[in-house]
Amino acid sequence: MPTETPRLLIINGPNLNLLGTREPGIYGASTLADVEQLCRESASALGFEAELLQSNHEGVIIDAIQAARNNAVGIVINPAAYTHTSVAIADALRAVELPVVEVHLSNVHSREEFRRHSYVSPAAVAVIAGAGINGYRYAVDHLASLLHED
Ligand code: DQA
């Protein structure tokens, strides 16, 4: 019987649906569709399937994280502005006990002071910021190496 391809859940938070047109000087010209294609290709090259979710709603993101407990082996998340506000997303990530990589397109440490604090980082095994959309590729790669160690 063929075994199911292990799945990585890749979450993009609020306003990332506007990528490509949203502050391109900060976030670049690539669109969310480009990010999603990159994630699918990177995951598949390493023997994983990418499940993609973009939502502008905190509760939708939390529901997806909770569901990942039963249907994914790792999570890549760009929580966008929820990075700096959401104890609830951080709690959900801790609750599911899956490896999490946090990604930011921009270098949040070189911007406004409020972007330097992340509620999510303590729940992540790695944080990638400032590498643009390549950050998602690095995140998938890192999760794959962690998971292949098991
Ligand atoms: C972001 C950085 C956040 O501070 C911001 O609110 C975003 C995007 C990034 O990818 O650089 O929406 O997560």
Give the structure's gist in a few sentences.
The chain is of the alpha/beta class and about 150 residues long. It is built from 5 helices and 5 strands.
Characterization of this structure:
The protein contains five helices and five strands; from the N terminus they run E-H-H-E-H-E-H-E-E-H. The chain has 150 residues and is of the alpha/beta class. Strand 3, helix 4 and strand 4 form a beta-alpha-beta unit. Helix 2 packs parallel to helix 5 and helix 3 packs parallel to helix 4. It is globular. Bound molecules: 1,3,4-trihydroxy-5-OXO-cyclohexanecarboxylic acid. The site of 1,3,4-trihydroxy-5-OXO-cyclohexanecarboxylic acid has 10 residues, from loops. It comes from Nesterenkonia jeotgali. Its EC number is 4.2.1.10. Belongs to the type-II 3-dehydroquinase family.
